[in-house]
Amino acid sequence: MDDIFNRQQSIVIADVQVDGRTVDIFVTEDGIIGAIGEGVRNDHRGDADLIIDGNGAVALPGLVNTHTHAAMSLLRGYADDMILQDWLSQKIWPLEAHLTKGDIYWGTKLACLEMIRTGTVAFNDMYFMMEEACRAVDEAGIRATLSYGFIDLFSAEKREAECRATENLVRHIRSLNNPRITAAVGPHAIYTVSPDGLKWCAEYAAEEKIGIHIHLSETEKEVTDCVAQHGKRPAPYLDDCGILTPRTIAAHCCWLDEAECTLLGKRGVSPSHNPSSNMKLATNRAMPYHWLAAAGANPCLGTDGCASNNNLDMFEEAKTAALLQKFFWNNPTLLPAPEALTMASKNGAKALGLSTGRLCIGAPADLILVSTNVPCNTPLHNTASNLVYSCSGSAVETTICNGAILMLEREIPGEAEILAQAAEAARDLVKRAQAA
Amino acid sequence: MDDIFNRQQSIVIADVQVDGRTVDIFVTEDGIIGAIGEGVRNDHRGDADLIIDGNGAVALPGLVNTHTHAAMSLLRGYADDMILQDWLSQKIWPLEAHLTKGDIYWGTKLACLEMIRTGTVAFNDMYFMMEEACRAVDEAGIRATLSYGFIDLFSAEKREAECRATENLVRHIRSLNNPRITAAVGPHAIYTVSPDGLKWCAEYAAEEKIGIHIHLSETEKEVTDCVAQHGKRPAPYLDDCGILTPRTIAAHCCWLDEAECTLLGKRGVSPSHNPSSNMKLATNRAMPYHWLAAAGANPCLGTDGCASNNNLDMFEEAKTAALLQKFFWNNPTLLPAPEALTMASKNGAKALGLSTGRLCIGAPADLILVSTNVPCNTPLHNTASNLVYSCSGSAVETTICNGAILMLEREIPGEAEILAQAAEAARDLVKRAQAA
Lengths: 436, 436
Prior knowledge:
2 copies of one chain form a homodimer.
Chain A: E1 11-18, E2 21-27, E3 33-37, H1 40-44, E4 50-61, E5 63-68, H2 84-96, H3 101-117, E6 120-127, H4 130-140, E7 143-150, H5 156-176, E8 181-187, H6 195-208, E9 211-216, H7 220-230, H8 234-240, E10 248-252, H9 258-267, E11 270-273, H10 275-280, H11 289-294, E12 300-301, H12 314-328, H13 337-351, E13 367-370, H14 383-390, E14 396-401, E15 404-407, H15 415-435
Parallel strand pairs in A: 1-4, 5-6, 6-7, 7-8, 8-9, 9-10, 10-11, 11-12
Antiparallel strand pairs in A: 1-2, 2-3, 4-13, 13-14, 14-15
């Protein structure tokens, strides 16, 4: 049975619901959606390598997580309920100092496993030792845009090292020639990267025609410090450095004012909303989704790393986003369920420059099947509402990326080994840190 | 295999984690925890009717949902993303007007199924045609405190009818003589029940020595209207009516001021936090958990009905509570994971006057097993943190209530029929409402 997983083959997916209609889907050997409609199973019964019984499941484009630090899955639950600065300086950084290549590999494997299980087929990651993340993503079968977290701490010497590390990762990813893995530049944030570092990142990304992944306006302190130092708020400051482009994903964006939202819209930036992380760390303000959407920006959704969420479930994140927008901006009609789903799929795909995020003929077969034979999807008055407000990622039963089956009826080959190895890596990491 | 479900029998649960230790648990034929510790499996191997392999799962007291309208599961996803008043008057009330006894039965069956699946063993419900809810709870095997939603709309005639309906339900529940089902009085809220109605409820509940289930300070309007009408805020007004007692569960409590929290503490009230519902309906303020806890009230947790959440997953609700408290009150150390778990279990049990909510010898065997062989529980640095921030109810694999097995390794007998019947009831309900 394992030989049907993670390979190219033509597939008929029979009896699924797409936009309220019961249809079949044909996936070509090249991993493209070849047909959607009634009777497709009969047209392709002869030439399909495999037939999957959808059993009335809802078929959706696979979700796209636009802000993660995947390997931090090893730090899940290591420290919580603390003040941000204490949490970082007393817990997270001391542990991160002991991370090995093996940890990055197993942490990213665990993250990919969790994403596949909860219906995510692509993610936008920023961390370090990213060659190990490449290996994990390659094996897992999902898509990723990977960036080295560029942190020069305003030192010219360190900046040179960060530039070389960035170039090396981009070169490495190009050499893999894996259509599922792309490179981005990852200037961490305005408070960790010098203006020269930011400008270099912007120019290098433009030359290489690759994305930019940055944290923006997560806390109020970031804004007040920026105004004090540069005489302007973070978004116009980043714009001066050339960072705001249609290839840019800006995570958090909690403290943007209306003019900054207009600027992000004008530049075609994709702001990644990370509501669970923002709530847990008490950022005290929610990303102004309505201003960003009205300004023509491309609001998308991300979970952040497992140290500050603490999971990678994009269904849960879509619910939290829809609830937080309503609550913070005091309007129960804000971010209705269909828009929250769009953030988690189509907008995320657009942010990463992927032609996925929708179910239509000719699109890559990045799709998931969500069970309807579960309490959270019963009754089924409104699909979008159930998916966002009622179901979690646990309702996903099948995940397909680039035409390859990664999970079928909740089975993922190799899961037990990944869980065991990741758990062991995490235990060893804590031991090393405590011994130091 | 089905004959091991929903019956009294002695059970050894081998290899589970309790408070960080690996132990076995012995459940007596009477549904009581008879032993917890290492080697218990050997002591009781001879006299146990059944041995369950816990396989390293975390054993927890079953969760207690202190505010639901269970039968509203049939309305899940029927209407969302609307202004409260439009949502009620255009969508919810017109549909509720067509609910039949069969709908209440299948809606409550569906709710119980979802609760069992997500680790909840007891709930506090307010709705109507509650004799049907009794039947559903009796069959499902979980515990419930059931109240008739007393709404007199300030009419003396209607008040008489509501008093009789309340008395009838209490009499009916007494006649069932089911230790898992208890009655409460359910004055809906200060804006739907007259002062005389509230006083009658308080006196009747005291006479009968049963609980009171009421909505309190959900919206700011409730507070301003109350002050305008009665010259005082809702909590002191309810206190004048005798409603605030150690047997009282007050749902929502979003807009309590500090003096009201002190009053609730003094009276020993259990405020039920319902964060998902509050966020979705944009109440614009979060229950002041820290004031209530400091005042000695018994803060507990509830999901509210499926029309405004839209699920009954208490693990998800515990996470939302922990995140919302931090975010709204702007302090990342508020409501840490262990306290959120306590709200969802021990405090909930106390609110309902149950001797459950803890795992110790002599307590009723209301317990759940949460898998550790899943990504959300890997690694396991901190159990409480994983349970609250990472796992949803989908990580629950076994649910035991009053010593009876309700779910074993995710299998619940009769699930398919309940899903099918509830879905059909919901479809018919919408048809009837549309035809009217």
